[in-house]
Design brief:
It is a single chain. The chain is α/β, with parallel strands linked by helices. It has a single domain, classed as 2,3-Dihydroxybiphenyl 1,2-Dioxygenase, domain 1. The chain is 25% helix and 39% strand. Strand 2 and strand 3 (39-45) form a beta hairpin. It is globular and about 45 Å long. The mean pLDDT is 94. Residues 4-134 form the VOC domain. It comes from Amycolatopsis coloradensis. InterPro entries: Glyas_Bleomycin-R_OHBP_Dase, Glyas_Fos-R_dOase_dom, VOC_core. This is Glyoxalase.
Length: 135
């Protein structure tokens, strides 16, 4: 059996800000842009790689209660609701690029005792993005 990761989901609260971050700042390609009932789902991914990220409106599932929507909104605002892990072969250069674009840097690149160098940034919706580089 051969299983691979096709995609992942991250909530977004502002499609235009999400596009500016993932497409314009990180260089991801837009693979799908779907609007429905006043909402927008964006599918983005690194050029040349088959994996995608679906940036979706938060808490739109019909089974989500108003209280759950409130908690999700609060967690997103704090950056504790969703996250994703990227890798880069030039972590310091990437973080310099992110800082110059006024991205919200959470942790500057740091050597870790487990053989990686990593840092963290938040996207415009508050999602935590950790980025690693093998040392």
């Amino acid at each position: 059996m051969d299983i691979s990761i096709h995609g992942s989901f991250l909530p977004q609260t502002d499609p235009e800000a999400a596009l500016a971050f993932y497409r314009d700042l990180l260089g991801f390609e837009v693979r799908n842009d779907v609007g429905y009932d006043g909402m927008r789902w964006l599918t983005v991914g690194p050029p040349g790689q088959p994996v995608s990220i679906v940036l979706h409106p938060p808490a739109v599932d019909p089974g989500v209660t108003d209280d759950e929507r409130r908690v999700i909104s609060e967690m997103m605002a704090k950056g504790t609701y969703a996250g994703i892990l990227f890798s880069s072969d030039d972590l310091d250069g990437l973080f310099k690029h992110l800082a110059e674009a006024d991205a919200e840097i959470i942790q500057e690149p740091t050597d870790q005792p487990y053989g990686l160098r990593d840092g963290a940034v938040r996207d415009p919706s508050g999602n935590l993005i950790r980025i690693q580089q093998r040392v």
